[in-house]
């Protein structure tokens, strides 16, 4: 016959231990569930914060105008005799332009830095360029508006930035492709080396539109994301970077060139002078100090940083004033240093007395202080130095 299992009699403490263990397991499951919920909420919050930060950065970045090429009537095309830029749709003829340029010095964009003396050009001067980049006006502290234009005259290192300050000066129309002449504007050097200069204009009377460029174009490479590198349409259809990329793609399709190790460069490899010029192109990432504001330009995007606010002087409480006065009037080392920092001369009559605790540590009685300090008497030739109290 099978023997029936005998029931186990548990004491109260053992039963309580089993109940507590079950509760611990339940709490552990709840903690794991709360941890999973916390991680999900944390990940969702971080994603929302990142998206808001990206949106904020996009809002701070100034949007640019888009280039809209116009049809050119080559029968009306003229070449400006100063900048050698080919124009059409001139609002006036060349004779009127010569009259406005009378007794003024034309300075090419790539020669402005060499013409400067003490940070400025001390002459009645004019420069001419084609607008190939234009940002929308952006407001700064005080309601003033600033706009950035980028100019070129299609010459090596012939690029420069133009900042328009003031509501009267900013341009709301699309200026891309227009040729403008600028008169006696301020020159701002970038904080970085080998970066392009910047011009600052505060009056619309110093800016004159003289026509539209025939030769301004942009690189056709880049696929869906159109390349924003400007170029002279007479010289090339692609910028130097996309020319190299197209050459490498064509080279890889030919077996006789696929294994070669020769590097490809744009231009005539035998012309070393032109090759050196290509390496001296200005860096387009720079920052400028325009008035009280710092403007950071990165390629075709511009950001502005307002000047930091000056911290207000903190008002001391009565307790702090009393503590400073106590230190100022004390004879401690800290009091002496503080008075020296404040430029207060030391008082010769200030009593130099040790505190009672200091006197007791030195073995003296704080209640019996001599009225006069001990003094060394002059010793005789053969006698020893004696200490006497006068």
TrEMBL record:
InterPro entries with a match to the protein in the record: Mcm10, NA-bd_OB-fold, OB_MCM10
Coiled coil segments of this chain: 17-44
Feature: compositional bias, Acidic residues: 381-390
Region (Disordered): 362-390
Top-rank taxon, per record: Eukaryota
MF annotations from Gene Ontology: DNA replication origin binding; single-stranded DNA binding; zinc ion binding
One of the GO BP terms on file: DNA replication initiation
Domain MCM10 OB-fold: 81-203
Keyword Heme: no
Cellular component GO terms, alphabetical: nuclear replication fork
Keyword Ribosomal protein: no
Gene3D superfamilies assigned to the protein according to its UniProt record, in alphabetical order: Nucleic acid-binding proteins (2.40.50.140)
Name of the protein: Minichromosome maintenance- protein
Originating species: Boothiomyces macroporosus
Lineage: Eukaryota, Fungi, Fungi incertae sedis, Chytridiomycota, Chytridiomycota incertae sedis
């Amino acid at each position: 016959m099978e023997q029936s299992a005998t029931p186990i009699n548990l004491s109260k403490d053992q039963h309580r231990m089993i109940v507590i263990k079950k509760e611990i397991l339940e709490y552990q499951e709840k903690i794991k569930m709360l941890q999973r919920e916390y991680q999900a909420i944390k990940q969702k919050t971080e994603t929302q914060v990142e998206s808001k930060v990206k949106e904020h950065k996009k809002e701070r970045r100034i949007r640019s105008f888009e280039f809209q090429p116009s049809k050119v009537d080559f029968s009306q095309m003229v070449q400006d005799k100063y900048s050698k830029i080919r124009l059409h749709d001139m609002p006036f003829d060349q004779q009127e332009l010569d009259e406005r340029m009378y007794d003024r010095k034309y300075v090419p964009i790539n020669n402005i830095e060499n013409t400067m003396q003490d940070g400025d050009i001390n002459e009645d001067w004019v420069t001419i360029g084609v607008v190939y980049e234009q940002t929308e006006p952006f407001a700064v502290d005080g309601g003033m508006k600033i706009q950035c234009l980028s100019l070129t005259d299609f010459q090596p290192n012939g690029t420069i930035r133009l900042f328009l300050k003031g509501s009267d000066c900013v341009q709301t129309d699309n200026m891309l492709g227009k040729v403008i002449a600028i008169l006696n504007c301020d020159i701002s050097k970038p904080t970085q080396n080998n970066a392009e200069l910047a011009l600052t204009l505060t009056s619309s009377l110093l800016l004159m539109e003289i026509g539209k460029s025939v030769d301004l174009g942009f690189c056709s490479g880049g696929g869906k994301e159109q390349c924003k590198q400007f170029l002279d349409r007479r010289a090339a259809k692609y910028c130097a970077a996309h020319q190299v990329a197209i050459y490498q793609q064509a080279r890889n399709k030919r077996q006789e060139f696929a294994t070669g190790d020769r590097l490809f460069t744009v231009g005539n490899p035998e012309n070393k002078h032109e090759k050196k010029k290509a390496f001296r192109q200005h860096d387009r990432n720079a920052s400028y100090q325009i008035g009280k504001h710092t403007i950071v330009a990165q390629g075709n995007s511009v950001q502005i940083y307002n000047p930091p606010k000056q911290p207000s002087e903190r008002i001391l409480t009565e307790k702090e004033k009393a503590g400073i006065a106590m230190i100022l009037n004390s004879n401690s080392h800290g009091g002496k240093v503080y008075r020296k920092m404040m430029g207060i001369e030391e008082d010769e009559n200030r009593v130099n007395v040790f505190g009672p605790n200091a006197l007791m540590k030195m073995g003296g009685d704080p209640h019996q202080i001599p009225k006069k300090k001990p003094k060394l008497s002059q010793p005789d030739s053969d006698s020893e130095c004696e200490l006497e109290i006068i």
